[in-house]
Design brief:
Blueprint: H1 10-23, H2 27-64, H3 70-93
Length: about 100
């Protein structure tokens, strides 16, 4: 008897089709997974935005130390303080898990 791909009995392909159908998630499960994925992506984007915001606070604070004019220093520290307040607000309002 020959063996190979073209010589398989037809019942095995029918069984394979049933297995594929049963392993595919339903439409509601797919939508639920897509919603979870979208939520996770958005949460990650928010955390990244907050990280950049807090890094900007550090940058402005370090930059303020380089200027000799007190007004410029205080202005940069004031902007950094405002960004810090916004960043801390986001940190405390994000969901934990």
């Amino acid at each position: 008897m020959r063996s190979g791909r073209g010589f398989e009995p037809t019942h095995s392909t029918t069984r394979a089709r049933r297995q594929v159908r049963s392993s595919c998630p339903s439409t509601t499960t797919r939508r639920l997974n897509e919603r979870r994925g979208t939520t996770a992506r958005e949460r990650g984007d928010h955390y990244l935005r907050n990280t950049v915001l807090l890094a900007t606070v550090l940058f402005l604070t370090a930059l303020a130390q380089k200027f000799k004019v007190m007004r410029v220093r205080l202005s940069l520290i004031g902007v950094a303080a405002c960004l810090l307040v916004v960043g801390l607000y986001f940190v405390f309002t994000y969901p934990v898990a």
